[in-house]
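Researcher: We're teaching a course module on how sequence relates to structure. For the next exercise, students receive a sequence and then see the predicted structure as tokens, so they can try to spot secondary structure elements on their own. Here is the exercise chain.
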Amino acid sequence: MVHYIQKKTGMINTERLSLRLLNNTDPEFILELVNMPEWIRFIGDRNVHSTEDAQNYIQNALLDTTSQYWIVSLKEDKIPIGLITFMKRSYLLHFDIGFAFLTQYTNLGYAYEAVNAVVETILSDPSHEKIAAILLPENKKSIRLLQRLGLRFETEIKKKEQVLHLYSVPTDYLKINRLTSRFFNLFTNTNQQTPPLDDLYSICLQKAIIAKKEIDRTEIYDLEEFLNPRKIILTDGTLTEFREYEVSEETRISNHLAQRISRYHKDGYLNGVYFSENGTKLFQFTKDENTWKIASVIWEDSTSPVT
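Model: And here is the predicted structure for the students to work with:
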């Protein structure tokens, strides 16, 4: 769970990290970061060769009212390890997200954890309809991170004799991704955790319909009818070590309506016997006041592999 105060302090806290806005106490870290071989190769030489240069770099960044810069630090010892930016570039239609981390802190999941938290704060601002990112096509690690966040290749851009790749994603798509993940996570009780089943009421419309397709019939539930029997079996030992997650999806968004075909896998122990199944869920969503909610879900289980 991400906790943040976006407007006043810019503070964002995740499980392992603390993010704050760039300030004048950061020149030593900036000096180290922008002179990394990876920064110079993939971002460019900023001609920052002293703490004075770094201070000027910071001052210029702080004067840019269209941009935000977050310093990423380890939560326990406050050591700065990375920088995340969110800025409006003159040649891009939408704001661009960027990130860089000290070499010794890469491949540890910190970059994804931090950037995902910043994206979460961006999604709370309805003025952002898309999130963009530009980078060199050979920057494979950053491309993989962007793809994991949900951004997809859009086009090539020529800038200062360089060919850059533009990645982007609609913020509505990211919101629906998160809403779908919350639905699947409602029922997880692995490692003796208590599933957050009552969250169903906050992610669905009050009169949402949930249906299960059997071979010869369709069972239809309101939220309470669907939830009550699952509360029992997920907490009384009948169904244990249960998890359900999305394997692939197809999402279509039209203004304030959306539909998602979700192929999923689930497994666990029912009365002590292990089981594993796949299936398909069809979600329908509606959007009111910048908030997406589930209007209906229909699912069909299958023991065949999900493709």
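Model: If you want an answer key for the exercise: Confidence is low (pLDDT under 50) at residues 1-8. The domain at 3-126 is CATH 3.40.630.30 (Aminopeptidase).
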